[in-house]
Write a structure and sequence with these properties.
Rossmann fold; 2 domains; six-stranded parallel sheet; 17 strands
Length: 395
C-alpha cells in the first residue's frame, strides 16, 4: 500500500473531494440496524472536513432495480451519519448535472454532503462514460475509502479515479496493510482458520495460504468436500462434488509445502437444522447415512484452540458450523474465544459470518482487525489485483 497516495499526501483545503464510501448497511423501517461500516469511514470523513475540504460522499446500497426502488434510498443513512459525525450532513438526491452540481457549488469548506444511491443509475455498474463524467465533475479530488467494493470495476470505484487525482482513505489503506502486508509477511507461527459452506468460494485463498501459513484449520460445510476427497463417506453433509479433485490437490500441496492442513476429527451431526434437533458426536469417518455434519466436535474444537493459542499471526474467515442455531454454535464460539484470548498474536478477521459470530459471542473488541470487505478481503488475501486499488495514484 506504500506505493499508493493517501489523503495525507495531498492538500485538500478548499477542494471538493468526492469520497467513495461503503454504506451498504442493513436498514429496517427507515433505521440503520448495523452502523459498523459507517463508523469505519468516520476517520477519513473527519480528516477531510477538519482540513476544510468540501466532502461529497457516495455509496451504493443493495441491488435496486432503478431509482423508484425507494427502500434502497440512502436518506436514513444521512441521519445516522450526522449523529455519528457530530455535524450536519446534507442529502442530495437530484440530477448530478443540475441540482446536485448546484448544491455542491454552494457548499462551504468543512461541509459534508451525501449523494443518493449510486446504483439508482445503471451507469454506475457498467461504468458508463457520461455517468462517470458527471460524478467527476462534482469534485477536484477523488478518495476511495470503500474497501468492500474495491474489487468492482464500476464508475465510482475505477472510472472517476481515471479522471481525477485519486488517493486512498484511511480505511482502505488499513485494510491493505492488514490483509496484504501483514498476512503476506506474517510473524510465525501463522495459523489460518477457514470455514463456511463452499470450497469453491475459497479455493484460491487456500492455495495462497498453503504457501505462507504453518497451520490451516478447516471447518464448516467446506470441510466435507475435503473429507470426501480423502475417500470417506459424509452422509447427508454438504459436498461440492465437482470440487473434490481440487480439494485433493490442496491436500497434496499441503504435504509439499509443509503446511499442516487440519480437518475436523469429530463432528456434531443431526438429521436436520433446527433448534430442537437431536444431535450426535461422531468421528469424521463415521458419519451415518441420513445425518449431516453441522458443527465441528469437541475434540476438534480443543485441537483447533491449541493451535490458535500458539499462533503469532491469525487469519480467520468463515464459521465452523451453523452457529446461528444453538445446537451447532459451540465450535464457532470456541474458535472465536480462542482467537480473542490470544492477545500476543495479530488477529485479522476476514469479514462476513466471522464478524457476525464475534458480535454474537461478544468478542468483536478482542481482536486486532476486522475487515469491512467480504469478497474484496478474499481477493486481496489470494493475491488478486483490486481494480479500485490499482486505479489510485502512486506515490
Amino acid at each position: 500500500m506504500n506505493s499508493k497516495k493517501t489523503v495525507r499526501d495531498i492538500e485538500v483545503a478548499g477542494q471538493c473531494v468526492l469520497v467513495r464510501v461503503d454504506f451498504n448497511v442493513p436498514i429496517e423501517g427507515g433505521r440503520v440496524m448495523d452502523d459498523t461500516r459507517i463508523r469505519a469511514a468516520l476517520p477519513t470523513i473527519r480528516f477531510l472536513a477538519d482540513h476544510n475540504a468540501r466532502v461529497i460522499l457516495c455509496s451504493h446500497l443493495g441491488r435496486p432495480k432503478d431509482a423508484s426502488d425507494s427502500q434502497f434510498s440512502l436518506r436514513p443513512i444521512c441521519s445516522a451519519l450526522s449523529q455519528l459525525l457530530g455535524r450536519e450532513v446534507t442529502f442530495a438526491d437530484g440530477d448530478l448535472s443540475t441540482e446536485v452540481l448546484t448544491a455542491v457549488q454552494d457548499m462551504g469548506d468543512g461541509e459534508v454532503m451525501l449523494l443518493e444511491n449510486l446504483r439508482f443509475c445503471p451507469g454506475e455498474k457498467n461504468k458508463d462514460p457520461e455517468f462517470t463524467r458527471q460524478l467527476a465533475a462534482l469534485a477536484d479530488i477523488y478518495v476511495n475509502d470503500a474497501f468492500g467494493t474495491a474489487h468492482r470495476d464500476h464508475a465510482s470505484t475505477v472510472g472517476v479515479a481515471e479522471l481525477l487525482p485519486a488517493v486512498s482513505g484511511f480505511l482502505l489503506a488499513r485494510e491493505v496493510e492488514m490483509l496484504a502486508d501483514t498476512l503476506g509477511n506474517p510473524e510465525k507461527p501463522f495459523v489460518a482458520i477457514l470455514g463456511g459452506s463452499k470450497v469453491s468460494d475459497k479455493i484460491a485463498v487456500i492455495d495462497k495460504l498453503l504457501d505462507t501459513c504453518d497451520r490451516l484449520l478447516i471447518g464448516g460445510g467446506m470441510a466435507f468436500t475435503f473429507i470426501a476427497a480423502k475417500g470417506h463417506g459424509v452422509g447427508n453433509s454438504l459436498v461440492e462434488r465437482e470440487w473434490i479433485d481440487a480439494a485433493r490437490h490442496m491436500l497434496e500441496k499441503a504435504l509439499r509445502t509443509g503446511c499442516e492442513l487440519m480437518l475436523p476429527i469429530d463432528l456434531v451431526v443431526a438429521p436436520e437444522i433446527s433448534e430442537d434437533a437431536t444431535t450426535f458426536i461422531v468421528g469424521r469417518e463415521e458419519i451415518p447415512d441420513g445425518l449431516m455434519g453441522l458443527d465441528i466436535g469437541p475434540a476438534t474444537s480443543a485441537k483447533f484452540q491449541a493451535e490458535i493459542e500458539r499462533a503469532k499471526t491469525i487469519f480467520w474467515n468463515g464459521p465452523m458450523g451453523v452457529f446461528e442455531v444453538a445446537p451447532f454454535e459451540s465450535g464457532t464460539k470456541e474458535v472465536a474465544k480462542a482467537v480473542a484470548r490470544n492477545n500476543r498474536a495479530v488477529s485479522v478477521i476476514g469479514g462476513g459470518d466471522s464478524v457476525a459470530a464475534l458480535k454474537k459471542f461478544g468478542y468483536e473488541d478482542k481482536v486486532t482487525f476486522i475487515s469491512t470487505g467480504g469478497g474484496a478481503s478474499m481477493k486481496l488475501v489470494e493475491g488478486a489485483e483490486l481494480p479500485g486499488l490499482e486505479a489510485l495514484d502512486a506515490k
